[in-house]
Amino acid sequence: MMFRRLALKTACLSGALALTGLPMASWAQAGTVKVGLVLSMTGPFASTGKQLEAGARHFLREHGDTVAGKKIELVIKDDGGLPDQAKRVAQELVVNEKVQVLGGFSLTPLALSVAPIATQSKTPSVVFVAATSSVIDASPYFIRTSFTLPQVTVGVAEWAPKNGIKNVVTLVSDYGPGLDAESAFKERFTLNGGTIKSSIRVPMRNPDFAPFLQRVRDEKPDAVFVFLPAGVGSMFMKQFAERGLDKAGIRLIATGDVTEDDILNEMGDVALGVVTSHHYSALHPSPTNKKFVESFKKANGGKRPNYMAVAAYDGMRVIHNALKATQGQTGDALLNAMKGQTFESPRGPVLINGQSRDIVQDVYIRRVERVNGELYNVEFDVLKAVQDPGRRR
Ligand code: PHB
């Protein structure tokens, strides 16, 4: 009798939800919360996908996968780095897998293609990477735990003119985050008395840097400022040295995407002395980070975490904290509980701004140095609690 009544009740609810056209995510499995991760596990950005997966799994390993009586289940789908595929797998996650939370999005175009799905299905979605400032506006269901390019660029743009760099050529990847980095650098550098000699944009996929580096060499600036998405930096560095730009006395300054921890060690001596600004270094000297790096390496065959792993680790923390606050409720309640969180991340103290849904964090100025035989980004200055300056709010 009890079972029949329950079955009837469930059938009525299913009918009502089906009429709204929304997936019945909250009713999928009472004791489980499914988190669907859209990650680039194959293709040119696979190193990012792997760091993200490792970071997300590491959080659950360290903090447990059960919260408020619900087991968090990760469902991972590969988008191959392609927007159409990202959209398709996000749809599958929401409609077939009935995930209650989405996360991932290794590139800006992938986040933009998933945004309408997050909005229509009202699925809270944690952006682990996509760092073009405006990505957060693409869906009211987006929360970001990574960074924005304007947020991290202004540090090096302020440092450079105070350290003998008077004129610069900018060289960025020709899509959202690159354009954000280019304009943030220009604005802050010229405000501080610097001059931009020229601005070069290189293709986002499979760039051949040689002709662009030749142009930089011919222009003889004090420095070249570079943004390239994670994973591409070592190829750039190799060609920078091959073209002899270092020998020609042209300094390299960049956002930390170029000297990211996953690939920094492969770059060799050409990377020594490169100054960048960014929100995370594996060498960040806090007890929280030391513990994080040690346990991450242990669980991942000695691999160093980069800022992608940290964003996914913190993304899972935001989900975990929110589920605790809502006692396992999902949907809008969960989204609201994600807003306004503050915690100590391996990168330092962070806040998820309740209004903007974006992360507020410290940005460090770092120099590549050899420490105990390995290359690291060594922090030597900090800008505290930086908001995304990329949008007026
Ligand atoms: C992006 O596509 O938004 C993106 C990807 C990798 C980065 C930074 C930004 O390192």
Task: Give structural notes.
By secondary structure, this protein is α/β, with parallel strands linked by helices. The protein has 2 domains: 2-147 and 289-357, Rossmann fold (3-Layer(aba) Sandwich), CATH 3.40.50; 150-278 and 363-386, Rossmann fold. It has helices spanning 2-20, 46-63, 83-95, 108-121, 149-159, 176-191, 210-219, 233-242, 264-267, 287-299, 307-326, 331-338, and strands at residues 32-39, 66-67, 70-78, 101-104, 125-127, 142-144, 167-173, 195-202, 223-227, 251-255, 275-278, 342-345, 348-352, 359-371, 374-386. Strands 7, 8, 9, 10, 11, 12, 13, 14 and 15 form a 9-stranded mixed sheet that branches. A 6-stranded mixed sheet has the order 2-3-1-4-5-6, with helices on both faces. Strand 12 (342-345) and strand 13 (348-352) form a beta hairpin. Helix 3 runs parallel beside helix 4 (108-121), helix 5 runs parallel beside helix 6 (176-191) and helix 11 (307-326) packs across helix 12. It is globular, with a radius of gyration of 22 Å. Mean pLDDT is 92; it is low at 1-28. Bound molecules: P-hydroxybenzoic acid. P-hydroxybenzoic acid (PHB) binds at residues 107-108, 129-132, 177, 229-230, 257.
Global Rg? 22 Å
Total domains:
2
Return residue spans where pLDDT drops below 50 for at least 5 consecutive residues. 1-28
SS field, number of helical segments: 12
Strand content bin: 15-25%
Helix content range of the residues, please? 25-40%
Bound molecules: P-hydroxybenzoic acid
Alpha-beta content class: alpha/beta
Considering the protein shown, what is the CATH homologous superfamily of the largest domain? Response regulator
CATH topology assignment of the largest domain: Rossmann fold
The averaged pLDDT comes out at 92
The largest β sheet comes out as: 9 strands, mixed
Can you write the helix and strand succession as a string? HEHEEHEHEEHEHEHEHEHEHHHEEEE
Shape: globular
Number of DSSP-assigned strands = 15
Give the CATH class of the largest domain.
Alpha Beta
Examine the secondary-structure arrangement and name the CATH architecture of the largest domain.
3-Layer(aba) Sandwich
Q: What is the CA–CA distance across the termini?
A: 57 Å
